[in-house]
Design a protein that fits this description.
heterodimer, A: mainly alpha, two-stranded antiparallel ribbon, 2 strands, B: elongated, ND/Mrp_TM (chain A)
Chain lengths: 484, 101
């Protein structure tokens, strides 16, 4: 039996059930559904690991009119990561949302639609299904941002929605141009057909612009901090850990799989420059925030910058450097997913306990919530890139790639980024460890602290088992010009 | 002599450019929703117009545009409902960042 359709059917079915039958215990049902999801994606991961990439034509309709799903090593790894992060966030939300009975009613359907869209994007094999997945993802994510329905949340949701809509139209226009020129939408076919002419470059340029907007890459990032920083804790975690990665994933596939020889090296360097801008600006802004959730949100802006270094490090260099860059970037995507989810969840617990979002209100909190602060600290180790952690391995691979291709300027950016990260993380520690008058805190359920801790431990643990996901991800034959 | 599909593309591009100008120039949230829809029509025009080869009807672009319309309608509905609640909560028709300018 093929597992791929299951990964789309379960989220959609669960979404409809939680929408239509809100009297059921939809939170508990969600955990059951997530367990099935986790099991299915683990099975798929092992199957791809052993047998190589698989494909599936929905309803036996062949492309171009039918929809084909493809699972290669990268896809299977991302599916497993999504299921693992989502189930822990769901577990957290089960307890966290007790404070928000009204929001709970709408959180679960949106959660499932979000998951369906993410799985759809990882599995999609053609440009148009990627578009549909992106749109479903945007609609679900915007709904989640606006969940609390106060003025700030609604404004952040609108800002996010408008930026995302503009981005998706640019992407769609690029798809139209490519279909007009080549008569196919399949990524696999396009990768052999694309020619370096002006139509292709304009099309890829438009798609890139749209995807950069959706991934909130500096300087198009301004919608992200209010949306991620203002949302409920489990929502922030899902958005920062998974949602922004989806549009980056499409961008990476597009450039490395299809547009590898099409786009000029200078364009790849420009993308890297935007990434460097994100690392410096995001880190600097994170250091200046007085709201602890905004600090973590700006940290996401900075960490997204590292992903963009893929393009200058992998395009126009030797195959060895490109492989290192690809592995480093994908590993960063994984470990940042776990670490940032852990960070948002632990910060969410702190905010819930103190009742305020200000960084200064967290004075002395380490004595009352040591577990949450420990989870924050572990995730911070990975985000700073200190050994031993997933983040360290990712940044080490990126550094090696920069050295082996002789691009010293990106090394400086990597090191500077680490220092800035240490700066804003230690600001949180300095305040939370000071001796202050004991703050008045609300008791919080223990599962909240434990789920953040679990995610943080996984982020650290990735540093020990890095060969595992890396071996699986190199199963794919799709990477730079098929040379990897 | 300009071929028909090129005409579609040129008109589509013109519509997109005009709508994009409105989207950037005007800060009223409702105007922006309208601009987004018009921009979408321009993209759809290019999609069905440019992608027709050899005078034959190609079903793929038609299917794409149909899906695109559904997506645009849902996005518009979501934008309208969030805008309505935003207006009720704040009495504003613009986002704060835009009014400051």
């Amino acid at each position: 039996m093929n597992l791929m359709p299951l990964l789309l059917i379960i989220p959609l079915a669960w979404a409809l059930i939680s929408l239509l039958a809100p009297r059921l215990p939809i939170g508990l049902l969600a955990i059951v559904g997530m367990l099935i999801q986790l099991f299915a994606s683990a099975m798929l991961w092992f199957s791809v690991h052993v047998n190589g990439p698989e494909s599936y034509a929905i309803g036996d309709w062949m492309a171009p009119l039918g929809i084909t799903l493809i699972a290669d090593g990268l896809t299977a790894t991302l599916l497993a990561m999504t299921a693992l992060i989502a189930i822990i966030c769901a577990f957290y939300a089960l307890f966290y949302l007790r404070q928000y009975p009204r929001e709970q009613r709408f959180f679960w359907p949106l959660f499932w639609f979000l998951l369906a869209a993410l799985n759809g994007i990882w599995l999609a094999a053609d440009l148009f299904n990627l578009y549909v997945g992106l749109e479903l993802l945007t609609l679900a994510a915007v709904g989640m941002v606006a969940l609390t329905a106060d003025k700030q949340a609604l404004a952040a949701g609108l800002r996010y929605l408008y930026a995302a809509l503009l981005g998706s139209l640019a992407y769609l226009l690029g798809v139209a141009l490519l279909y007009g020129a080549y008569g196919t939408l399949s990524l696999g076919q396009l990768s052999n057909m694309l020619e370096p002419n002006i139509t292709t470059q304009v099309a890829l340029g438009l798609m890139t612009l749209g995807l950069l907007m959706k991934s909130a890459v500096f300087p198009l990032h301004t919608w992200l901090p209010p949306a991620h920083g203002g949302a409920l804790a489990p929502v922030s975690a899902l958005l920062s850990a998974l949602v922004v990665k989806a549009s980056f994933y499409i961008l990476a596939r597009l450039w490395l799989q299809a547009g590898f020889d099409i786009m000029p090296v200078s364009a790849a360097q420009l993308l890297g420059l935007m990434g460097a801008g994100a690392i410096v600006w995001g880190g600097w802004q994170a250091m200046r925030q007085s709201d602890i959730k905004m600090l973590v949100a700006y940290s996401t802006v900075a960490q997204l910058g590292y992903l963009m270094l893929l393009f200058p490090l992998a395009i126009g260099v030797s195959a060895i450097s490109a492989t290192l860059a690809w592995q480093g970037t994908m590993f960063h995507l994984l470990s940042h997913g776990f670490a940032k989810a852990a960070m948002f969840l632990s910060v969410g617990t702190l905010v819930l306990a103190v009742g305020k979002k200000g960084l200064d209100d967290m004075a002395g909190i380490s004595r009352q919530l040591p577990l949450s602060l420990f989870a924050f600290g572990l995730s911070a180790i990975s985000i700073m890139g200190l050994p031993p952690s997933g983040g360290f391995n990712a940044k080490w691979l990126l550094l090696q790639s920069a050295i082996s291709s002789g691009q010293w300027h990106w090394m400086i950016v990597l090191v500077l980024g680490g220092l800035l990260t240490a700066g804003y993380v230690f600001r949180v520690f300095r305040i939370s460890f000071v001796d202050g008058p004991p703050t008045d805190i609300k008791p919080t359920p223990l599962p909240l602290e434990l789920s953040a801790l679990l995610l943080a431990v996984i982020a650290i643990g990735l540093g020990f088992v890095s060969s595992w996901p890396l071996a699986s991800m190199s199963v794919t034959e799709l990477l730079p010009g098929g040379s990897l | 002599m300009m071929s028909t599909d090129l005409w579609f593309a040129v008109v589509g591009a013109l519509i997109i450019a005009m709508a994009l100008f409105t989207f950037i120039r005007h800060t009223h949230l409702l105007r922006r929703i309208l601009a987004f829809n018009i921009m979408g029509s321009g993209v759809f025009l290019i999609m069905v117009g440019l992608a027709q080869h050899d005078q034959q009807t190609d079903p793929v672009p038609q299917a794409l545009v149909l899906t695109g319309i559904v997506v645009a309608v849902s996005a518009t509905a979501l934008a309208l409902i969030i805008f309505r609640r935003f207006y009720k909560a704040s009495g504003q028709t613009q986002l704060d960042e835009d009014t400051e300018q």
